[in-house]
Each structure stands twice: as structure tokens, then as C-alpha cells.
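#struct-help
A.M.: can someone run this one for me? Single chain, 500 residues.
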Amino acid sequence: MYRSQYLASSNPVTCPPEIQTTQFAGLHVYTHQSLSVVSAECGDVRLLLLGTVVDPLKPENDNQAIVRDLADECDTSGALYREAQKLSGRFVLLLNSNDEFVAVHDACALRQVYYSFVDGKIVLTSSLRMFLELHDEQISIEEGAKEFTESPEYVSREHAWYGDRCLDARFRQLLPNFSLDLLRRKAIRLPVAREILNEVDTVAYATRVLEGTIEALVRRGPVIQALTAGWDSRILLAAAKRFRHDISFFVFDMEDGSQADVEVPRKLAANLGFDLKVIRPLQLQEEFLDVYRAEHVDPRVLPKTRHVQHHFFEKSHHDATNVNGNCAEIARCFYGRPGIGSHPRVFQHFSGYSSENKFALQSINEWLAGAQSYAAENQIEVLDLFYWEQRMGRWGALAPAELDIAIDEISPFNNRNLLLSIMQQPARQRVAPSYTFFRNLVNEMWPEVLTEPINPCGPLGRLKNLMRHSSLSKYYCSRLQEMVSGRKNAYAMEDSRTER
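D.P.: on it. C-alpha cells below:
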């Protein structure tokens, strides 16, 4: 159990044989043997890495070399935050010195950090189940959270949480753009260090980051990469041009009517000369579900859980890295071109939860209290920040965590400098239906991948794409859809299909 999971605790616990123990700054750090653990020291600075880190500008460097460089260059938490902005991967970094003790994770918090300071004890973990079992504890659920998770909306929203609260009331989740100060016992917003780039420079920089991340992963071992008819997988295909014969490309055929996601990749593979495997995943098996459910305190069983099952049964994938296109939606103005304002009801609506869901509304309002000023100070559209920190950092992070029992997943767009650089470009360049910036990016890397259409659709689909251009039109169109259909979670269902 607990493949690729970690637990860092002030209290020692007894662990099964597959769990390794590392001592770091007074913490007992327990990790499954499949999770990379690397440490380095320089002077009074000590660093610990949990997970996979990639320097896309130095793709030849492995985890050890990157952590060693960080220890040499980062004598303060501020220096660590600045350097970590440049990194891709899925990781947690801890820095300890005579004056500081902090934790920071990857750009979109895909290596999750649940933290607790109950009774003065420090607990950090990627798995609440691992904490409960190793500490021989029972889960502690507040009544409001219990009611929230028992609602039909929660199921239809695929267990989406907002704010930083968790199922276990003793824990909070560290969100993207935050670090955790372990001495002051609080999460703090990260500073933003960046230079303003014009579009041409940003295209060149994005190319280096995406190609460099894929090169680094190919250097480290087997890589598999999904390909669909959508934008994000097409961008990553372009970034993989030099390594297309070293990567195992695949597409899941779910037989659900989305044939473009199969036919378009087939044509691309035939025309551009790379291999593609079309996979029809099995229906869910009890043998798998027993293992899967045992890993989580709140397991989701969805149609796409069949993807996890496939990788779980495909033993050759256990040593591979799955390259995924998630996180790009942050820079693609998922909620449309800004212009609708930042009233709490807008975020409530885009969350997919109804106005009667007081728990979700309170959580969103708590986040908004600090997010609006942070967005303004750093020239980030608050709707983009909402998607980044709340939709991707919470709901989006569930998918790679569920895959952990089978395969490690890395999203090359999961790079803070990359996202911030693209988000500096005008929204009109980043929004549907044209996605001008991303088209320019693909043309820079491998223009031939655009010979097949992106998400081909009929007149109704084209109309929907036009509606996604503006947050205002998207908001009112989905509100109208709710009134016509009588379904208050109409938008929730639409954006769940769109994102993955």
C-alpha cells in the first residue's frame, strides 16, 4: 500500500517493510520505496526532496543534481521559492536552517500536502489514509463537511473541494502559490519573481520548458504519453517531436461516442510517422477496486477510474512516467476572457455548486478574502487564479494521486515560471476559440501536428466554443441552461467533460 506516498510526523510510528524512514529536522519522514527521497546540505542549510523534480533548462540533471544545486544556491526560503519557480515535476521540498523551516511544492500542488499542527505536533502527508493507519487514528469529520460530502452535488462534482479544508477536520491542504512555515505554523502566500516577457520571448521560453521537461523524463526512463483530439495533448505532442520514437503514445477508446479523440490521433500517427496504441480499458474489476478503495479515505469511482485500472494491471507501466497535459487550462482562460467581475456568486457558479450549498460558498469566500489582493498585486486575473488554486490544485490533483498506485504522472505545464509567463500575455491571445498564443507555440515546435483539426465538432460545438470566449457569456449561457434544464449543476457537468 501507499505507493509513492509520504508521511512526515513529529511522532514516530511503526511501518510495514515497504516503508522507508528518513530523519529530517526533528521529523520522522516515512516514504514508500517507490517515492524518490533526496537530501543535500550546504552550511547550515538542509534540503529534502520528496518526489520527482525536473529542471527543464538543464534536462541532463537528475533529482540528486537538482537538489544539490538548490542547496548550494538557496540559503533562505526566499531563494528557494525563486529557484523552485523554475522547476517542473511533482514534488515537495523542505528547507531547514538555523532560522527557517519551510515546505513548498510543485506549481499546481499535484504532489499534495495535507498538514496539521494539532497539539503542537507537525504532520505532513500526501495521504490521509496513510496518516490514519500508521497513527492508528480514526477520521475526524465536522458536521458541515459530512453534510457536504453526502450531497448529490458532491458526487456529480467528482468530490471537488474548495478553500483549503479537508475531510479530516484536523488537516488543511496546502494550495498552489503557498508555502508552509513550519516554525510559525501557518501557510503563507508565495512571492512572485518574474520578468515581463513579450509574446515572442514567451513562445521561445515555453518551448524550452516543455521540450526540456520531456527530454529530462525520457533521459530518466520509459515514458508513455496520451494523445487525444484536444489542445493540451497536441501541444505536448509538438514538444515531443525529437523524442517521438522514444515515447509510447496511446489513447483510451472509452466507446462513449467521443470518436474524434481516437480518430484524430490515429491520423496524426499515420501521417507523422510514430506509433500509437489504442486501448479499450476493461470494465472495473473487484480485484482492482478493493486495492484502490483501500488507498483513500474518500475514494472516487468514475468512468475514468478504468484508466487507473489499466495502468495498474499493465505491470510494464509501473516503472514508466505518464506524461499528461493537465495544468495548461490555467493559462488557457478556462472560464473565458475576463470581464465578469469578482462577486462571490460568480465563483460559486463556476464551482458547479448551488447557492444553497453553504459549505462550498463559505470555503470560496474564505479563499477570495486573500486571493483578490494577491491577484491584483501580481497581475493575475482572479478567475485564472481561481482555476489554478482551487480547480487544479484541489480537484485536478486528485487524478495523479489516484494514479499513484499504478504509475507516476508528470504534467510538463506544471511549472510556475511557465504558467506566469504565459498568463502575462493578453487574454485575447489565450482564450477560445482561436487560442492564438498556443497555436503560435505549436508552430514553433512542430507545425505539422496542426494538419489535423483540434477537437473537431459540428455547428453546436462551434457555438459552444464561441461562448467560452467570454466569462460573461459563459456565465449567462450556463445560467440559462440551468433554468431550461432545471439542473443546477449543468456547468459542473460541462466543465468536467472538458477538462480531462
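A.M.: thanks! The first strand starts at residue 6 and ends at 9.
D.P.: also worth noting: The longest helix spans residues 199-220.
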